[in-house]
Amino acid sequence: MSKSLDLPFRTAKQLASSIRKKKIGCLELLDLYVKRVEAYNPELNAVIASDIEGARKRAKAADKAVKAGKKLGPLHGVPMTIKESFDVAGYATTWGDPAFRNHRAEKNSLVAQRMIDAGVILFGKTNVPLNLADWQSYNEVYGSTNNPWDLSRTPGGSSGGSGAALAAGLTGIEAGSDIGASIRNPAHYCGVYGHKPTWGVVSPKGHALGGAVSTSGDIGVVGPLARGAEDLEIAMSVMAGPDAIDGRGWTLSLPKARKKKLRDYKVAVLLSDPNAEVDQSVQDEIQKLADFLGKKKAKVSDTARPAIDTAELNDVYVRLLRAATSARIPDDAYNAALRDVAALPDDDKSYFAQMQRGNTLSHRTWLRLNEKRHRMRLAWDAFFDDYDLMLCPVAVTAAFPHDQQGLRHLRTIVVNNKKVPVVDQIFWAGYAGVALLPASAAPIGQTRDGLPIGVQIIGRQYDDYTCIEFAKLLEKEYRSFVPPPAYQ
Prior knowledge:
The protein is of the alpha+beta class and 488 residues long. It has helices at 12-20, 26-44, 52-67, 110-117, 160-167, 184-190, 229-239, 280-295, 310-325, 331-343, 351-359, 363-383, 426-433, 464-477; strands at 47-50, 79-83, 121-126, 138-139, 143-144, 174-178, 193-196, 221-226, 266-269, 299-301, 389-392, 412-415, 418-421, 439-446, 452-459.
C-alpha cells in the first residue's frame, strides 16, 4: 500500500508537485539524482551516458519558469533517463552493438521530445542488451547492468537499465520498448511499474538502429516505466498519439478507465501454463493477490480463458517475433538460419527451430501466421466481453543470476527445482504481445529471498487506461513500490 518515501524514490507526479509548490527546485532535484548516480551507478552500471552540464542549463531554465509563474507541463522539472535505444540529440544510439559505437543522433526521438515538452529534464541514457534481445542487459559497448536487489542477478531486459535506475532511485521516470516483455520483464525483476501499450498507439519514430527510418514494426511498442502507476498514466497521455504524418489523418482517443473500485472489476487469473511452467514462488504471490481481490468483492475466476490454443499461440508468436526482428541480423547469420531450416525435421518445434524458421519466414507463411494471430485477437476481444482483465505472470521466475555464457537459447534457469531453457518464458511475453494487447506490470510481492515479483495485467485492445487504473488501485490498496534496502 502507498506510503511516503524519501525524495529520490517518490513518483514523478509527486516530484513535479513538489517543484510546482516550490518545495524543491528543478536544479536542486537534478543534482540530487546526479549525486546518487555518482554514488551508486558504479556498482549498478544502469546509467551509461549522461550530459549533466546540458541538463543543469535546462534545469535552471525550468526554475526560472516556475518563478515566473508560467504554465508548467505535467512533468515539469522531473529528472529523466531514457533507454539507450531511443535517439536523443548528441547521444550515441548503439543498441549495444559496437558497430554503431560512434553513431550520434542528430535529433530527438518522438517519445523523448514529447517527454521533454511535458517538462522533464532528460540527463542520461540507460543500458540495454545487444540488439535489445535478452532478459539481461549487457553488451560490449557499455558492459553489464546489475539488479539493485541483488547485484549477482539480472535487472531484466531489454529495458534493464531503465528498471534498475528507477528501483535504485537514480532517476525520476523512464521510457522503454517491448516486443518480448522488454518493459514488463525489468519492471517485474526490479519491483517497479511498466506499461506495454496497445500496438500502434505510441509512435516509435526515432527508436531505430543506425538512424533508420522507423516504421511501426510488428508486435514491438514503446512505453513508460515508473515507480508509480499514476506516472504510467501521465506518461501515456504525453507519449501516445500519431507522428506528424499520421496525425494529418487520424487522432487517438483511448477510452478512460470506466471502473474506479476493485469490487467493480471482473478479472480472470492464470497462474501457469504447460508451455511455460511458472515457479511456485511467483504463482503463490499471484494467488495471494487473487484471494485479496476476492475479499474486496471483485469477481475473480481461475478458469475463464480466451478460446485460444496456447501452444498455437506460442508457435505463432515465436515465429512472428523472430520475423519482426530478422532485419537486424547480419547476412551471414541469415544464411546460417536458412541452412538450419533446410536441415530441420518438420516435427522439430523447439525454440531454436521456430526461431530460425521465423528468421527466414516467407511472406506467404507470414500471411498465414498473421491470419491465425488475428483470429486469436478476435478470441481475446470476445473474452473481454465478459471480463475486464486477465492477470498472469510476467515471467516464470523472479530475477535470475547473471549468465552470459554461450548462446541464449542454450542457457537455463531453475523453475520449481528443475533446469529449463530460459527462452521458455517467452510465452508470457507473447500471451498479450502477439495479439497486440496492452499490458501493465505492477509489483505485488517478493520471494523468500527478497526478490521482487510482479503481475501482468492484460486488457482489451485500446483499454490501456483500464490496465493502468487497476495497477493504481493495487498500488493504493495492496502493494506499492518498495525501494531496495541497499539504496534507501
